[in-house]
Amino acid sequence: MLFLLWPALAPALLPLCLVLLLAWYWRTDGRMVWFGLTGASMVLLSSVVYAVINASWSMARDEALSYAAMLFAVVLCLHIGLGALTRIAYRPAIEAMATGFYIGFALAGSFLCFEILSGHPTFFRLVTVFPHMWPQAPTYLSEGALPPHFLNHRMAALAILLWPAALTAVRLGGSSWCRSMLLVGVGPSVVAVAASEHATSLVAMATGACVVAASCWSWRAAQRLLMLGWVTACLAVVPLCLALVGPKRTGPTGYLESHKRPDPRCATTGCRYPLGTASHPG
What we know:
71% helix; 3 domains; mainly alpha; globular
């Protein structure tokens, strides 16, 4: 729930998620063992190495290296967490963790849905009380409202956990009526993403629906199509972006011309990047 309301807390919350898993594993097994590397773990570690190499020539090297370090922490926590989870044979413990995850997601999704539909009153109050937490707080306070894209980071977190929460609701429900009621709790999150200004999350939610529909038809075919889609997206993202931008806006080195010259509006806004290329820290 805290991750959905404040995604910036992810570096601190992610290791805490391992505490319950490792504690229960220690209680049942009586010892800790090294979880062997799997093929998926090797692929994820390769992505970390690629991220570090890519950061070496990034225009914002320190920031890129910090993201690579965060990716390594995510991969490490994922490897340890799944290794411990697969070794827990006590089903009530797994159901208790799944129930807590579902309740937190439903509560956070309902709150964010209220914020999106009502113009962010609670978050605006937080900006008013703690303006030092947001660099753009003076602008927000002078305008008397938060921009529509203020909750975009939260929408991204909702989109990431939406389908895991829906699948958790399906598995927790013992009957069709119970499953339907639990799925209703996911509804506010869908409304929040659909009503937000974050088009990427909306596309992710729709793509997830297509993957779920395909898996109902053929699990193996859906798995292969998903792998093909991920690989294609990773390899084709730069050529597609350059094709969409066009040669007129790229210089001899291939960089966008907007990165070469400062945006004239930055003189008044104080932004470090050309407008439209950086996100806000809300």
